[in-house]
User: What shape does this take?
Amino acid sequence: MDAKLIAQIFNDGVGSKYQTLLKGGRSEPVFIPNKNMNDVIYFKADYRSSALHEVAHWCIAGADRRRLVDYGYWYKEFRDADQQLAFEQHEVKPQALEWIFSQGAGIQFRLSVDNFQRIKSGCPDFKIAVRSEAISLTSSINKRALSFLRDLMSVSGLKHALLPETYREIPSC
Assistant: This one.
């Protein structure tokens, strides 16, 4: 499944219901709310993992956050150790949901720590946290995420994304 198909699935399904479009082609991902027209979730270039990750953020963001550019979150390219840990804590749930979407779409999932030094360390705590969250989400996924996941699975023909045993393995960075 490529990024164009993922965007089409989102736009024709849950995105249409919530007046939100998913579009690629950006150098950096960003969410742009719009009072008078559709909100837009932009993902990086034509990367399917970026599309799924940005939809995960959208699914998690509450109504108040969906009124703010990029849901009101900060992004810092270069982070010290404390900032990196804060970033990872914030990213556990979106990456777990991205993993579930990846399973539904038949796409290999890789953790993103956004920091080459952390990749070298193997980031074991982050991997375990994302795995635990993915298992937890299989029984508590929200309505918007479930709708998108069902649409992905309908197209891919895969049905295992909500089975906890799917997430036995620790994901790699």
Notes: The radius of gyration is 15 Å. Residues 3-72 form one domain. The helical segments are 3-12, 14-17, 48-60, 81-105, 116-121, 124-137, 143-156. The chain has two domains: 3-72, 81-167.
